[in-house]
Amino acid sequence: MERLQKVIAHAGVASRRAAEKLIQAGRVEVNDQIVTELGIQVKQSDQIKVDGMPLKKEPLVYFLLNKPRGVISSAHDEKGRKTVVDIFKEAGIEERIYPIGRLDYDTTGLLLLTNDGDLTNQLMHPKFEVDKVYVAKVKGRVSNEALKTLRTGVKIDGRLTAQAKAKVVSVSDDRKHSIVRLTIHEGHYHQVKKMLKAVGNPVVKLHREEYAGLTLAGLPSAGQWRKLRPNEVKALKQL
């Protein structure tokens, strides 16, 4: 027996949280009966439908993508722009995958995609403090005071960010730009850009080079991707 929202998430229809909303909206049937109660347990033999369509269980798949600039981190885009999921559809991947978290439209780098709702919720839950490493090209020279603020917490949107790791990698000869490596474990909207702007160094380019211990090794070009190895999936689930 498993919870209904978990079964829907494992089928690749939606993340577990999104599945809960489907249930509450009366869009899910179990054995031809509409179910709106969260937490209901279902058996393997139960017939489940979402929006009238029988649920088909998909094998769980896990991918690592070097996200290009100008691509939306979503399964769909109302404006018709290319999404990260489109990259996999073009490659013949049939499972209904979705990204774990988001990278901005103009941000490049490491992004995970899967149809495993449980793992998605685990990695995105704040209590697990999953490290994300970004490399940013910013305006100006980053002062020691700015680095100290980044490390101890920056006030953005009325709240203080968690402690982070911050290091200046290089400074241009004319001192008009710097390269900064920033490690955070939060994932608020535009967080890295807002943090760096708050200390006086607006972002020019942003790239995520590491997530939960995974790197882009072997995927040097934007748009390249690979399947996660079994030991990598196991390590993610043990975080």
From TrEMBL:
<dbReference type="InterPro" id="IPR006145">
    <property type="entry name" value="PsdUridine_synth_RsuA/RluA"/>
</dbReference>
<comment type="similarity">
    <text>Belongs to the pseudouridine synthase RsuA family.</text>
</comment>
<keyword id="KW-0694">RNA-binding</keyword>
<dbReference type="InterPro" id="IPR020094">
    <property type="entry name" value="TruA/RsuA/RluB/E/F_N"/>
</dbReference>
<keyword id="KW-0413">Isomerase</keyword>
<dbReference type="InterPro" id="IPR020103">
    <property type="entry name" value="PsdUridine_synth_cat_dom_sf"/>
</dbReference>
<protein>
    <recommendedName>
        <fullName>Pseudouridine synthase</fullName>
        <ecNumber>5.4.99.-</ecNumber>
    </recommendedName>
</protein>
<dbReference type="InterPro" id="IPR018496">
    <property type="entry name" value="PsdUridine_synth_RsuA/RluB_CS"/>
</dbReference>
<dbReference type="InterPro" id="IPR050343">
    <property type="entry name" value="RsuA_PseudoU_synthase"/>
</dbReference>
<dbReference type="InterPro" id="IPR000748">
    <property type="entry name" value="PsdUridine_synth_RsuA/RluB/E/F"/>
</dbReference>
<feature type="domain" description="RNA-binding S4">
    <location>
        <begin position="2"/>
        <end position="61"/>
    </location>
</feature>
<dbReference type="InterPro" id="IPR002942">
    <property type="entry name" value="S4_RNA-bd"/>
</dbReference>
<dbReference type="InterPro" id="IPR036986">
    <property type="entry name" value="S4_RNA-bd_sf"/>
</dbReference>
<dbReference type="Pfam" id="PF00849">
    <property type="entry name" value="PseudoU_synth_2"/>
</dbReference>
<dbReference type="InterPro" id="IPR042092">
    <property type="entry name" value="PsdUridine_s_RsuA/RluB/E/F_cat"/>
</dbReference>
<dbReference type="Pfam" id="PF01479">
    <property type="entry name" value="S4"/>
</dbReference>
